[in-house]
From TrEMBL:
Pfam families: Plug (PF07715), TonB_dep_Rec_b-barrel (PF00593). GO terms for cellular component: cell outer membrane. It is found in: Cell outer membrane. This is TonB-denpendent receptor. It comes from Novosphingobium barchaimii LL02.
Length: 995
């Protein structure tokens, strides 16, 4: 179960197991899919989640420490999700379960919409909203390699590699853990422990579907914009998974081999299938309206003055005539809100083999082999040619007389000349693009462990992981082919052909509403490819044991763990020449090859000292510490450390606290992302004959006395900006403070309560600064001036001049709050003198007191706790919780559960008083209301060999809160995905058969 706060009783560990499920009806859909879903989750926030020591040892280890001791507890809060929780929720995507935890924020997953920062086909974890790059993911206590080389937003581990049906439990440790596990653990650690010593054969099958009743009032906005809006009940998004687990113990239990194979298939759900997702939204004084793109179909034509280049009018096709221009109106824009998927179609295969064999107490061999292949169809809106200047010959036979006059004749251009026209075109005839993305991962671990002396154990292993990536994008436009196809002429045979037909060009007629032909589309459209990989190699060794000495007031000895580790990371990314030449219309900024690697050598140690045990007011008092020295080939030397203590005055109360100094070395994309000069809209206060900045200010940015007052203004205020990675980045550093208390009142048997305060601050944040901020800081404060490189000849920020907007270390990010949890279990027979089974209650909630960001050192920080919006991104409510009540029949064969999930309300960040956030917003777009979700689940054991589970989540079909102020990778147009249920009710049925 989801536990998060057990352990306060003698011997310092209370197992609080809350049955998690959600029950209720089922329905049948397509191929006998029993509908249903939703679990309830059991919470017990805190310690243990114990793992038995190897070779049958009695010591246990907890996630967050490598020390093996009896009755282990943790000084850091741990939330545990059990295999029962996963099964009763009917999950086919682990991120869907984890995103319901108050400590976890939505990130990459199957519900992300395609787009600029949208879906990647991976699934990543974001603890405390500190970013997936600051959450370390482990499998059986060992690192999971990074999942995607193409997108910096997906540079974290891809948990699609984790076989859901093979998971025994998931431990979530929030707060720094770099001293124990190394870089990336600034926000915390998520450890997936897989089943060990599995015996027999188990078959698991699950099927679920979403049902939604359309009836959101926002549908009227789409209707007013002339959009087709779904009505009534919709059913779709079928999710199915099947797995087989087979294991065998041998050699009198000294060895085990377990194999696992699973298949998952998920159907897509389009934004056009939900009334609340038909449009992206604008907030106007009159109310919400559909946000329409000016890149539209039919095209928008901006006609220019051939002498000055100035725009002299914007036009589109007159629908009445079909081939004449009329003035462009904003209502002519294109609605791309209904052209994406709320849930991307996906297919995944996992295959795993786990084995261990104890040759003797001194030698146990173990190994893991894991394979994953995931294929996602990421649907994107029809591609757009975004205001590209095109040369159109005035003799083009597709031009009507009126069009030719406006474009050419009226400004003195002859048939022998060409007009420069800024074209904005949406490829509506070609339909949505599809990014067919495939990730194929391999992970292998081989190791030895055992007892080297009484009380001392060793563990040494080698690990290799690799993810291969490929992308095939269809339906996008080649800008070169598009430009070629617009220059049509009439040949000697009277046929309309391309002026340059050498490459098989077919002329494209965008000057008529019926002019685009299939042959012309086939010519301008292309298939564009990207390939890449990430690779990780690890060699690690450690010893754990006790020193044989103890405090005079304690019976347990001092325990230590010592180890060393070598790790190497590599990345490669190769886009085709269309991407690297900026020829892909939907990605006109281009993508470029990435190649790089780093390695790190580390030494680490931990110590735990029981100071007092079994004394008055000191049932136990212990301190612990740890340190890790790392040498990176790129980032140099780093040092992480931790210190903590726990004190139980009596069995029923345990106080604990810790301080952890963690580090995160820059990842491969942050280091080696290709650098290139692009453009940024920027007003340079040092340009023109009368600069707005003084010479002294401009001199700080590199302007000479000769250049001052002579710098030519940049055309269109578009200056140069260097973007990309930075191999000179320093590691991020964080300090985490945590302290709390656990109480298990002896007069309320079965009840455990815990409260924990956390404070996490990340300094030297790896981020990027907009060119406008960098230049302003240099001019006004004299900082970041080394990020400005002016043209040495002219002093301008064009041609060879630019502002560096590559990754850099700047500012900080801090979050503080309090975690609450409660767990209770009561046999009803103790209350009513009848055998009526057992009732359990589990609660977990988080209050976020502060979420503060400072982009530039020395400038005003801004707060995002309680806000959402274009700067803060996804909502950061001050309160989130889950509460579950469950009942288990006396026989244990029936389990019922109901869960209440609560997400607090948030405000538009533009309503903040912080200068960096404050802005104009509409009153009705001020707030996202609090959301309550209710889930039901049931499970039934049948004849001891079969378990049937049924459930519904989001029983009342709550729509996600709607807003016009969305941003970030979890933005799905008018709402935030992942945090909110966005597809309606989910109904599931699953069955487990043990043979």
């Amino acid at each position: 179960m989801l536990s998060s706060a057990v352990a306060a009783r003698s011997p310092h560990q209370v197992s609080s197991k809350g049955r998690a499920s959600r029950a209720m009806r089922t329905a049948t859909l397509m191929t006998a899919s029993l509908l249903a879903l939703s679990p309830a989750i059991a919470f017990a926030q805190d310690t243990a989640a114990p793992e038995a020591g190897p070779a049958g040892g009695n010591d246990i280890v907890v996630t967050g420490s490598r020390i093996r001791v009896p009755n282990a507890t943790s000084v850091s809060p741990i939330t545990t999700v059990s295999s029962e929780d996963l099964a009763q929720r009917g999950v086919t995507r682990l991120e869907d379960m984890l995103n319901t935890l108050p400590q976890v924020y939505a990130d990459q997953g199957g519900g992300n919409r395609g787009g600029t920062v949208g879906a990647s086909g991976t699934a990543t974890i974001n603890l405390r909203n500190l970013g997936n790059q600051r959450t370390l993911v482990l499998i059986n206590g060992r690192r999971l390699m990074q999942g995607d080389p193409a997108r910096s937003a997906a540079q974290a581990a891809d948990i699609n590699n984790v076989p859901a049906a093979l998971v025994e439990r998931i431990d979530v440790v929030t707060g720094g853990a770099s001293a124990v596990y190394g870089s990336d653990a600034l926000a915390g650690v998520v450890n997936f422990e897989l089943k060990k010593n599995f015996e027999g054969v188990q078959l698991d099958a699950s099927s679920g579907v979403f049902q939604h009743d359309n009836g959101n009032s926002i549908a009227s906005v789409a209707t007013a914009a002339g959009q087709d809006v779904p009505t009534g009940s919709t059913v779709g998004g079928l999710q199915q998974s099947f797995s087989v687990t087979a294991g065998h113990n041998f050699a009198d239990g000294r060895g085990n081999i377990t194999g696992f194979v699973s298949y998952r298939h998920i159907d897509g759900v389009g934004t056009s299938e939900r009334d609340f997702s038909i449009c992206n939204l604008n907030a106007t004084a009159a109310g919400y309206s559909c946000s329409l793109s000016s890149t539209t179909y039919p095209a928008q034509f901006q006609l220019t003055n051939p002498a000055t280049g100035a725009t002299r009018g914007s036009y589109t096709l007159n629908p009445t005539t079909g081939n004449t221009f009329r003035t462009y109106r904003t209502s002519d824009g294109f609605n791309n809100g209904n052209t994406y998927d709320l849930q991307a179609p996906d297919e995944r295969i996992n295959a795993d083999l786990l084995a261990h064999f104890e040759v003797s107490p001194a030698l146990e061999l173990y190994g893991e082999a894991m394979f994953m292949r995931d294929k996602a169809d990421i649907r994107l809106s029809p591609t757009g040619v975004f205001t590209v200047p095109e040369s159109i010959n005035c003799s083009n036979p597709f031009l009507s007389a009126q069009q030719k006059n406006l474009m050419c004749t009226s400004v003195g251009l002859t048939d022998a000349q060409s007009a420069t026209v800024n074209v904005s075109l949406r490829n509506a005839p070609g339909g949505s693009r599809h990014d067919y993305t495939k990730h194929t991962s391999y992970r292998a671990v081989g190791g030895v462990r055992g007892e080297i002396a009484p009380g001392w154990r060793y563990d040494a292993y080698a690990q290799y992981g690799r993810t291969n990536y490929s992308s095939r994008l269809t339906g996008d436009i080649s800008l070169a082919s598009f430009a070629n196809s617009l220059r049509a002429v009439t040949n000697s045979s009277g046929q309309i052909v391309c002026e340059n037909a050498a490459d098989g060009c077919v002329p494209l007629n965008i000057f008529s509403t019926t002019g685009v032909t299939a042959d012309a589309l086939n010519y301008v459209q292309g298939t564009f490819t990207r390939t890449g990989f990430t690779e990780e190699t690890i060699v690690s060794g450690s010893v754990t044991g006790d020193l044989g000495v103890a405090s005079p007031f304690a019976s347990n000895p001092i325990s230590v763990a010592l180890g060393t580790e070598y790790r190497k990371e590599r990345i490669g990314f190769t886009p085709d020449t269309h991407y690297s030449s900026r020829d892909v219309a939907g990605n006109s900024g281009g993508e470029y090859p990435i190649s790089g690697s780093f390695d790190v050598k580390e030494l680490y140690g931990e110590v735990r000292v029981p100071l007092v045990e079994d004394r008055p007011f000191f049932k136990s008092l212990a301190v612990e510490g740890g340190a890790r020295y790392s040498h990176y080939s790129t980032a140099g030397d780093t040092f992480a450390w931790k210190a903590g203590a726990e004190w139980s005055p009596v069995d029923a109360i345990r106080f604990r606290g810790s301080f952890q100094h963690a580090v995160r070395a820059p990842n491969l994309v942050e280091l080696f992302g290709p650098q290139r000069v692009t453009t940024a809209r920027l007003t340079d206060p040092c340009e023109g004959v009368r600069p707005t900045a003084t010479f002294a200010q401009c001199a700080q940015s590199g302007v000479t006395a000769t250049q001052y007052g002579t710098i030519e203004p940049a055309a269109g205020q578009l200056s140069g900006a260097l973007v990309g990675g930075n191999p000179n980045l320093k590691p991020e550093k964080s300090n985490t403070k945590s302290f709390g208390v656990q109480i298990a009142p002896p007069f309320l048997r079965g009840l455990t309560l815990s409260v924990d305060y956390f404070d996490i601050k990340v300094d030297d944040l790896i981020t990027t600064l907009p060119a406008t901020i960098t230049l302003s800081q240099c001019i006004n404060a004299g900082t970041f001036c080394d990020q400005i490189l002016r043209n040495p000849a002219t002093g301008s920020l064009v041609t060879t001049g630019y502002v560096l907007t590559t990754n850099l270390n700047a500012g900080y990010l801090q979050t503080t709050g309090i975690d609450f949890s409660a767990s209770a279990k009561q046999d009803l027979g103790d209350l009513v003198k009848a055998d009526l089974g057992t009732v359990g209650f589990n609660f977990s909630g988080t209050r976020t007191n502060k979420y503060e960001v400072q982009i530039v050192p020395g400038t005003q920080a801004y707060r995002c706790d309680g806000y959402f919006g274009v700067t803060c991104g996804q909502p950061i409510p001050t309160w989130r919780h889950r509460a579950e009540v469950n009942w288990t029949a006396p026989s244990g064969a029936i389990r019922l559960a109901a869960t209440w999930r609560y997400i607090g309300g948030t405000r538009n960040d533009k309503s903040s008083s912080a200068t960096f956030l404050a802005g104009t917003y509409q009153p009705y777009d001020y707030k996202l209301k609090a959301v309550n979700y209710f889930d039901l689940a049931a499970s039934f054991d049948v004849s001891g060999s079969y378990t049937l589970r049924l459930g519904i989540s989001n029983v009342f079909d709550r729509d996600p809160p709607i807003t016009a102020s969305t941003s970030g990778q979890t933005s799905n147009g008018a709402f935030y995905a992942g945090m909110y249920d966005s597809l309606g009710r989910y109904l599931f049925a699953s069955v487990t058969a043990k043979l």
